[in-house]
Amino acid sequence: MTDPAPLYADHLRVLMQRAGTALERGGLDHLVIPSGTQHAKLFDDQAYPFFVNPQFKAWLPLLRVPHSWIVYTPGQRPKLIFLQPFDYWHAVPDAPSGWWVAHFDIHIIRTPDQALPLLPGDAARCAILGEPQSTLGAFAPNNPEAVVQYLEYHRSYKTPYEVALMRQAQQLAVRGHRAAEAAFRAGASEFAIHMAYCAAVGQDANDLPYGNIIALNEHCAVLHYTELGRTAPAPSRSFLIDAGADAGGYAADITRTYATDTGSEFQALIDAVDQAQQGMCRAVRAGTDYRQLHIDAHLTLAGILRDFDVLKVSPEAALASGVSAAFFPHGLGHPIGLQVHDVAGFAASDHGGRIERPQGHPYLRMTRVLEPGMVVTIEPGLYFVDMLLEELRGNGHADAVNWSRVDAFRPYGGIRIEDEVLCTEGEADNLTRPVFAAA
Ligand code: GLY
Ligand code: MN
Ligand code: MN
């Protein structure tokens, strides 16, 4: 696996270049990024888990350092102001170490306000990217639109360092997916499968990029089912797991679906979606409009439903009437990186502007033309969602559906298959499949 360490210097160079242009766009001199603060729970002395400002972790793989700051002034070395409090109640962050340390001027502070004299002289000349709670003296996050737009747009193009970390995240997540499948086949509950996943990855809810979706039977029809039932159903027929991992601040987001009875028709439906999904992944190529991939996915999935005698109409008719959307009611995928649903999926340019979704597809999160360096998920699904099927009946499309076939599949809930794919100058680079194949 690629070691990110030797790639970091180039990554930082790219970030400094981008920051320089972003500051020019904003007419400002310094980029200032607070890591964030702990947020107290209401009427309580406990805090929510700390999640670092994504603008901060873009620069450094530091995820657990509240009240720290990055300062970058073009022409100078970037500065890290690092809070290492005197504290015997909580573990204190280790002194900075790792491949990136040599690239920063590091200032250790012991209390949050000690950052103030280390920040640039004039707060009015700074782009301060953060949450309002990070305000320190005159340094109130202002998030200038021109600066944020530029940085977010260019974050879509992953550096080799970022891709290396994303590959690491895949390795971790696949380890968890293997353990989870084994737990499912042994008859475990959703909660027990979740625990097996976390143990195998070595991460829990505070580390993972999103809450694990671990669903058995009908629960597979709930797109974001995160309840984690404590008792295993009898029998356990189907298992949908959408679970990721974090590596240095970068997310994996992987979904697989399994059937207990591998000779069943539901297994055949899984296999059909799986085959189709691999084709969709191969279609991730520079110059391709992601909106077209999404529309093509509707046609492909409706074709599968027709092959399985669930739909009685052509894929084209199912797409035009909205019938396909009752079975595939989410977007084909989204950009991914520092955030599981990464920024700038709709960005028309680094000056702003928005590329709208196609009419009738309100949940698509990516409307851009693919370019080398972008990483997107490809996650087609087919579900048997009572609420949406009832709507279909009510909308006059009942005749498009073979309802006895729906009844046969309803106890399995649904299917989703999700990989990450890197767009290159040539063929699509599926970050997920080779890791499963090697596991
Ligand atoms: N796990 C959320 C998603 O797939 O987008
Ligand atoms: Mn997912
Ligand atoms: Mn996803």
UniProtKB/TrEMBL annotation:
Domain Peptidase M24: 165-425
Pfam families according to UniProt: PepQ_N, Peptidase_M24
Organism: Pseudoxanthomonas composti
Name this protein carries in UniProt: Xaa-Pro dipeptidase
Residues noted as binding Mn(2+) 1 in the record, renumbered to the chain: D253, H334, E379, E418
Alphabetical list of PANTHER family matching this protein: XAA-PRO AMINOPEPTIDASE 3, XAA-PRO DIPEPTIDASE
HAMAP family given in the database record: X_Pro_dipeptid
Enzyme class (EC, first level): hydrolase
Entry EC number(s): 3.4.13.9
A molecular function GO annotation: aminopeptidase activity
Family listed: Belongs to the peptidase M24B family. Bacterial-type prolidase subfamily.
Function: Splits dipeptides with a prolyl residue in the C-terminal position.
